Amino acid sequence: MSIRIKLGVTLVTLSFAGAAFAQAPAAKPSRIRGEIVSLNGDVMKVHRRSGDVVSIEVKPDTGVSAVKAMQLSDIKPGAYVGTAATTGTDGKLTATEVLVFPESARGAGEGHYAWDLSPNSSMTNANVDTVVEGTSGRDLKLSYKGGTNVVTVPPNVPVVTLTSAARADLMPGKKVFVVATSAAQGAFVAQRVVVEKGGVAPPM
Predict the structure, then answer these.
(1) Which of 146, 148, 128 has its CA nearest to residue 138?
(2) 156 with 145: CB under 8 angstroms?
(3) What are the φ/ψ torsions at residue 164 (nearest 5 degrees)?
(4) Alpha-carbon distance 20 to 24, whole Å?
(5) What is the pTM of this model?
(6) What angle do CA 31, 128, 84 make, to 5 degrees?
(7) By the 8 A CB rule, do 72 and 60 touch?
(8) Which one of 153, 164, 180, 185 is most buried, counting C-beta atoms within 10 A?
(9) Tens of pLDDT along 33-75?
């Protein structure tokens, strides 16, 4: 496989990854966060942060990605990001994580909607219009179809971007974020898996 073909496959894979992570609520995916217990054949068992263990079918063609750390200073105007945030009593949004999408995934899940990372959290997938140094971090002015938001990103908040991973990275003990659909008897079928790699766990 040539370098050009490999690059093309990687970009397509990451594009699909961005779309899967950031689907708006209309798609009604199940988002599973936890730690891998085992992977036997196509069945991955994950110990969810809620305390239970669930079975997830990971088909051979299921996309597997990872994230790598970035610096807050790496977020520039023109970037396309997805940020989970909480709303303060003053109505202002404070980020709990920021995913900087690759250009191939621009437009994935665009909008502002409820998220399930923490109580009363939201997700904004949008273009970064301006970046302003604030007293509590950096303020990102975000625009998306139908609206705008300003999100403050504190210095200690994880900032990541997508990177490639493989099925071989799905090892016991690794943290995962899985977008899945419900199957029979409480099991799930994975649409997309994001796995910890290089010590960087998926923060979304």
Answers:
(1) 128
(2) no
(3) -75, 155
(4) 10
(5) 0.83
(6) 25
(7) no
(8) 153
(9) 999 999 999 999 999 988 999 999 999 999 999 999 999 999 9
